[in-house]
Every structure is written in C-alpha cells, then in structure tokens.
Amino acid sequence: MQIKTLNVSYLTAIVAASLLVSNIVSADTLLEQKALKTELSATLSAAKDPSENFNLWSFMINIPEPDHKPERKGKVLEVNEKVLNAGYTHPTWFFTDPQTGAMVFRAPNKAITTPNSSNVRSELHTMLRRGDLRINEKQPKNNFVLTNHPDPNKYGAVGGQLSATLAVDWVSTSGDDKKFPAYSVVIGQIHGLGKTEPLKIFYRKLPNHDHGSLFWNYEIRPADQNQRYDIPNDVWGNHQLTKASKDPADGIELGEIISYVINVENTMMTLTFTKALGTAHEETKVFKHDLGKGLAGHPLDRGYWDDALHLKAGAYNQCNMSTENPIWGPGCSNDGIEAGDYAQVSFYRLDLQQ
Fold this sequence. Notes:
This protein has 354 residues and is mostly beta strands. The protein has 4 helices and 19 strands. The chain has a single domain (2-353), classed as Jelly Rolls. The protein has helices at residues 29-32, 34-41, 50-53, 81-84, and strands at 2-3, 12-18, 59-66, 76-79, 94-96, 103-108, 121-126, 144-145, 157-158, 160-170, 184-192, 199-204, 213-219, 229-236, 257-265, 268-275, 283-290, 309-317, 342-353. It has a 9-stranded mixed beta sheet with strand order 1-14-13-12-11-18-7-3-4. Strand 5 and strand 6 (103-108) form a beta hairpin.
C-alpha cells in the first residue's frame, strides 16, 4: 500500500469558526482547559464502568489479547455488545479514568492484531444489530451504506454520524521518524467491508516536539485492493514532520481536549475538527469529501458507493515493530508501557446517531 499526495482542489477545507487571533495555541492551553475538563467530568463517574458512563449498545470492542472463546482461537479478543454493556473493563487496555471518569483506550506496540493489520488496537466497532447476536459483523443489517448504494434497504442504516470529545494522552516514543505511522494513533475511522478505509483520523507527535499533528487519510478503493493507497490531509501540523522539523506550533498537545464529528449524509462525508476547546484560541475546521464516486485525479478509485461501512473509535496504535514496508513499517520497539511503547486516548464524550 502506498501514500499519495492529494491535490487540495479535490477536497474542500473550510475554516468554519476561528477567532481573529494568532493561529498558534498558547503554551498554557492545558491550563485554560481545566474548567472544560471539570465540566466534562461532571457528567461522568470515576466509580462507574465505561458502559455506565457512555451509551455503548451499538458497539463491540477489540482488546489486544487472544480471544478465549473456542470459535475464535488464535484471534484477537472481541467483546460483544451484551458483555460490554454488562460492565466490561480491562485493567490495562480499557477502563474508566479514576480521576476524570473518561473512557480510556490503551494499545501497546506489539500484541495480537486483527486480520489484514500489523497494528494493535483497543477500539470500538459499531454493531447496528445492537445486541442481536444472530447477526454477524459482516451482514448487511450490521453496516451502513450511502444513498447511491444499489440496495440500501437491506442495510442497518443509510449514512450516520459519530461525534467524539477526547484527549490523546500518549503516543509511542520509538520508531523511524521518517515514517508517519511512528508516534501516531488513529482515534476514529470509517472502514469498508474489505481492506479499504475511506477515513482514518490520525494524531502524531514527535518525542522532541511539544505539539502533535492532526490529519486524516482517505484510502482509494480500486478493483484490485492490492493497489490501494492512502491520501493524507493535514488539519493542524503536518503528517510528514521528522525530528529535524520545527515544532508544529499550530498543533495539539498531549492531553489537550479536541473533538471530531464524522457525518455521512447521502454520499457526502463531512468532517468537523475542533482544537483548543474551551479556550480563547478555539478553532474549528471542516472538510468535505464525496464518498459516492471515485476521487478526481485518481483513476483507480471507484469510491464507496456499493460498499458496506462501519464506524470505529478508540486507540488504534500505528507504531509496530516491522521495518519491511517502506511506509507502514516504522520499526518501533516494544519494551512495555513503562518505556512509553504504547498509545492511549481518553474519551469524554462519544455519541453515535445511526
């Protein structure tokens, strides 16, 4: 899989709200956000399990451990909606923050992974069956489609929206800084039925920088999925930064509360990102992309008009130990959480409308 650069004329990036002050987030953003974090935490309980603080009936979760169920021997652990909403937690990978009540996802650099991925995840996966375990995850009733799908009535939904308010607490501090998966975590995505993903939202911070970059990738959907590649789109900062680059002063600090909204209506995907929430430097950017057709300038792309899709949120750690792939093999170490070889994301709000 490759990476190609997008001509910005094909996607519209609109700054929807920004105060006419410096684009640079002040050094005390985290201090300014204390009141917001207190406000968000007021509706959460540090004594409750995630499913008691959040409505998780439309999600199952992948946990980075081998599954104990006989039918899933050798596969990554899947926790279905019923078990998840019966108070499921994991002391290391999925739990309630004991101070804020946030829902915490943590993923190491190396553990068992899902098929077609070298990367470890602690991640929610939408399940529109909402507890009807007779419907498996690939069946139409468990997925959503676009309005120009040839048979939309078979599916669980047409379009949908996922909103999240969160902070990236940590990203791995090892790896090849010339490969963008190093030091990065995916915090939200749309996945197709096959290998392709029309959306992955990345946060990436170099260990010698104070701020990290936020960007999103669109993956083209060719007839031959081995020809697929990602197209990065920077929101704040730059996905190509290395340790030799200057700190992206317009970027996002670890622990800073940000939000995203993924909205798919008809065939249009609208992405809304907000940083420096609750401060004088709050800024929002909006991006639009039509998923119902191939991307102009990329003749292999068929678009996602006839695909079945699902939404995801959590911590999908992009730092793995492989070095073979020229892009996706960042060569990260795996010396444990104490050594910083993990990613962690805390969600304060998560809302699915579908």
